[in-house]
Amino acid sequence: MNDIFRKVNPMQTLTPVTPETTVATADVLTFTNVTKRYGALVVLDGVNLRIKSGEFICIIGHSGCGKSTLLNLAGGFIQPSGGEVRLRDKIITKPGPDRMVVFQNYSLLPWLTVFENVFLAVDAVYPRKRLPEKRAMVREYLNLVGLGEAMEKKPPQISGGMKQRVAIARALAIQPQVLLLDEPFGALDAITKEELQEELLTIWNRSKATVLMITHDIDEALFLADRLVMMTNGPAATIGEILTIPFDRPRNREQILEDPRYYDLRNQALSFLYERFAHQE
Amino acid sequence: MTALVTVAQVAKQFPLAGGNSYLALQGINLEIQRGEFISFIGHSGCGKSTLLNMIAGLDQPTHGQVWVGGRLVKQPGPDRMVVFQNYSLLPWLTVWDNIALAVEEVLGHLSPVEQRQIIQQHINLVGLTAAKDKLPAHLSGGMRQRVAIARALAIRPEVLLLDEPFGALDALTRGNLQEQLMRICEEHQVTTVMVTHDVDEAVFLSDRIVMLTNGPGSQIGNILTVDIPRPRRRMEVVKHPSYYSLRSEIIYFLNQQKRIKKMRSRAMTAVARHGLEKVNLELGFVPLTACAPLAVAQEKGLFAKHGLDEVHLVRESSWRGIVDGLVGGYLDAAQTPAGLPVWLTLGGHQDKPLPIVSSLTMTRNGNGITLAQKFYQQGIHTASQLRNYLQEQTEPHILGMVHPASMHNLLLRYWLAAAGIDPDRDVRLKTIPPAQMVADLKAGTIDGYCVGEPWNVRAALEGLGFTVATDQELWLDHPAKVLGVREDWGMRYPNTHIALVKALLEACHYCDQPQHREEIRHLLARPEYLGTDVRYIYLGEPGKLTCELNQPEYAHHRFYGEGLNRPSRTEHLWIMTQLARWGDVPFPRNWLEILERVCRVNVFTIAARELGLLGTTQTSRSPIRLFDGSEFTSNQDPIDYLNHLAIKRDFSVAEIVLERPQAA
Predict the structure, then answer these.
(1) Structure confidence at residue A255 (pLDDT)
(2) How far apart are CA B276 and CA B602, in angstroms?
(3) 3-class secondary structure per residue, chain A
(4) In the prediction, which pLDDT does A20 show?
(5) How would you classify the pairing of strands A90-91 and A82-87?
(6) Tens of pLDDT, residues A176-230
(7) More confident: B382 or B45
(8) CB distance from A246 to chain B under 8 Å?
(9) Which of A161, B47, B188, B265 could form a disulfide with B218 if both were Cys (CB 3.0 to 4.6 A apart)?
(10) What phi, psi does B349 have (nearest 5°)?
């Protein structure tokens, strides 16, 4: 958990690292030789990935590369045909509140208010907590995503960006160990998207969650991620290459553009996706 | 050649409830040639779709006219086909039938056989031959949009109008469709106008990119020409030296629009205090080692000491931002390249002379010329060796610099020309932001650059290039960065101006003292200033003067000393000759007046006296001495000097009419 201090200010690396955060136990999510088949169709073949506590991982690849399958395996919605997926040392066999998913289409209940949408989830996961405590949790996370003023509104009354904020608040209010994001900003316009990316980083910093996020957007990944996992094309897709994104945190979009390494990384990712693993529908 | 599409003086107003109206667009003038690919880019609400709709005839301008193919546009027509983001296919018809419907409607005079041929040809064109009998619901979003494009092209419009055609698709699918669209447009010479908010899409596809300012009353802010040759392939485009420059130009424009919106919402009122007219200042700087005096004045409380207790430093990634900030009046003052005050005063920015005053030279030196490592390995260590090498080359060589009015540009050109290399004909100079220069050098898309530190030493430390010349070899102690304010600002806030010069001169003095070097290096490395590794930042004397790979040399800065900080008329005059030499601005016939307006020695002198730093007020009478042995003195005839330079452009001499000095 000390990892989080490293992110707040890279200049202050003085926080002592406790012995338990050794490499082996710090892995929160591990994919070991994971294969996924549907009948004769091999979707994923031989995926190995170890994700450390507090890491922000982005996965990129063309449609059909199995990246959603990867996320669904982590979510416990489906089971691997071969190999295993573990949350810390437990094999994942079903969905659970320790891994929350946020989808592109928000998945809010339109007849409930913003507050009630989040409350529903908190209540389901923490049935034994006292009501005032649960209500306080809901308010805390809605404030965190800047929706303190909009709690009584219903989803049809708010913008797409606000809906996605609600979905993120709902996922975080459960205090999951891992946040699984399935292209959460894909449906938003450029400016809202950038705002939400910045908010997501702020929240991630505070919540200490480990993030696994699917994206199609190289610049989004370079801004957000610690590592960018690039998938080869399906069928039988696997991890082709992993880019380590070295920019200091907290990150500033304009300053990243001033860093020569940005151009290098961007060209590597473009070359991977459009040359080495180009894809036609 | 007459344009295919002409948009003349177009304005568009929308009526609002309650009798008011909203001015969406104004003063739009644009000509589109046959076969061109044009993009409109801007934030939501900038009127880019409205403009497209007026070309389509779906909407009518309130003022002005739109002409397509010599006809005034009054209504939609099959010569202008629009493709929208949401495909607009009929869900109960197959791919074939969706296209057939349009073909029958518009090309009904053709025989059924011909019609079928056209349909088949366009389905093949977008690669949907195998899917021609499918219903839209059975297609992916990308495939549906290909059907919409095939349908639009099948009726052979004169202009294809695309309104965010790929907006609903994910970034990678979009990338693939862009390649297909480009191939089709190139093969069929289709004239295309596309609305987009995607910077990469615009650069990749367009011949020209029209950037629209924010509404209300959106206008064309700028038009960029994409000088990347066709046919284009994505990775070739990405590796082209113009790609990241264009991209950053558009990102800069879009960010600037966002900022202007914010600026408008919080109007800055002057806060007067301590006998100063304004103590709340926005000061612009660019993250270079040379910004040390501003950083020190802020961190050491020197601004506050002189009464300026609400100074905010505004970090700009490029000199463009500084220019826009001064011109737009949302920066009170800025660190500028030494040539910028004269350049702006002479009308270098959009041909509109804007008097800028300089009352303090903050730094000298600190620049260097870097060449890619391959030149070193081939034994090219001097400018004359470079000239000999270039004479044997056929492909163009590209060198980067940061701004036409920067000393980097002027010194680089002087250095090249002195060795007999014409900076416009024997090489190509490109304006590139510093961070991209290092990346471009690594990618091999440029051959070298002239820029301020830390970018020369960085290239050397990373083994990408070597410093072929520093200030030592060009013009020792040349002015590098000066303080610039608008003349009208200086007249409105005279005491604030003096206080600002005092704070910064004191900071220069601080920077000059060797015992402060380490502290300043670490201060500058912080993210709010340079945001870089401290090992790239040097302040002191360089160890070696000759170029060598193992021992990277760095350009050294001078911040303070006798005759170093006082604005120098001779230096600004030399800058004027060089700007005219390369055709940036005319040489002003009224150069004495211009010098008088730009160099505010009295402000400097008052500030220095009040600080008790009298040593700095001495006038340097010695001429400028350049490395090629030439001298330039204050009583020299500048036009005669210009005429005697061997390599130059056809410079012009003109009277630059400035408004009479007045407070803003």
Answers:
(1) 84
(2) 18
(3) CCHHHHHHCCCCCCCCCCCCCCHHHHEEEEEEEEEEEECCEEEEEEEEEEEECCCEEEEECCCCCCHHHHHHHHHCCCCCCEEEEEECCEECCCCCCCEEEEECCCCCCCCCCHHHHHHHHHHHHCCCCCHHHHHHHHHHHHHHCCCCCCCCCCHHHCCHHHHHHHHHHHHHHCCCCEEEEECCCCCCCHHHHHHHHHHHHHHHHHHCCEEEEEECCHHHHHHHCCEEEEECCCCCECEEEEEECCCCCCCCHHHHHCCHHHHHHHHHHHHHHHHHCCCCC
(4) 40
(5) antiparallel
(6) 999 999 999 887 877 788 888 998 998 888 888 899 999 999 999 999 999 999 9
(7) B382
(8) no
(9) B47
(10) -95, 110
**B143, B435, B458: residue with CB nearest A257:** B435
* Mean pLDDT for chain B overall: 89
One-letter identity of residue A228 = L
B391 touches chain A (CB under 8 A): no
User: Are B442 and A264 within 8 A, CB to CB?
Assistant: yes
What CA–CA distance (Å, rounded) separates A216 from B349? 39
Q: Is B588 helix (H, G, I), strand (E, B) or coil?
A: strand
* Cross-chain Cβ contact B171/A270 below 8 Å: no
Check if the interface score ipTM surpasses 0.95: no
pLDDT in tens, B365-374: 888 899 999 9
CB of A89 less than 8 A from some CB of B: no
Instruction: Write out B507-549 in H/E/C secondary structure.
Output: HHHHHHCHHHHHHHHHHHHCCCCCCCCHHHCCCCCCCCCCCCC
Q: Comparing B4-13, B418-427, B614-623, which segment has the lowest mean pLDDT?
A: B614-623
Average pLDDT over residues B492-510: 96
Cβ atoms B161, B82 nearer than 8 A? yes
- Mean pLDDT for B563-586 is 93
Measured between CB atoms, which of B142, B244, B434 is closest to A281? B142
Q: Could you tell me the two tokens for A34?
A: 């994971």
List pLDDT tens digits, range A70-118.
999 999 999 999 999 999 999 999 999 999 998 877 789 999 999 999 9
A258 contact B CB<8A: yes
pLDDT digits (tens, 9 = 90+) for B324-344: 999 988 899 999 999 999 999
Rg (CA), chain B: 29
Cβ contact B557:B293 at 8 Å:
no
Cβ of residue A190 closer than 8 Å to a chain B Cβ: yes
Pairing verdict, β B631-632 and B356-365:
unpaired
A152 vs A118: CA distance, rounded Å: 11
Q: CA A218 to CA B234: how far, in whole Å?
A: 14
| Integer Rg of chain A from CA | 19
Among residues A165, A70, A64, A170, the alpha carbon closest in space to that of A120 is found at A170
**Distance of residue B157 Cα from the nearest chain A Cα, in angstroms:** 27
Q: CB-side exposure of B642: number of CA atoms within 13 Å?
A: 23
The neighbouring-strand residues paired with B428 are B398
CA–CA min distance B67, chain A (Å): 32
Helices (H) and strands (E) in chain B, counts: 25, 25
Q: What percent of chain B is modeled with pLDDT above 70? A: 96
**More confident site: A182 or B259:** A182
Which residues of chain B lie closer than 8 angstroms to A62, CB-CB? 172-173
Task: End-to-end CA distance of chain A: give it in Å, rounded.
Answer: 43
Chain A contact for B531 (CB, 8 A cutoff): yes
- Measured from the Cβ of residue B655, the count of other Cβ atoms closer than 10 Å reads 11
Distances in Å between the alpha carbon of B243 and those of A44, A259, B173, B431, B438? 35, 16, 21, 12, 15
pLDDT in tens, B429-479: 988 877 788 888 888 889 999 988 888 888 888 889 988 888 777 888 899
b/e A240-270 (16+ beta carbons within 10 angstroms → b) = beebebebeeebbeebbbbbbbbbebbbebb
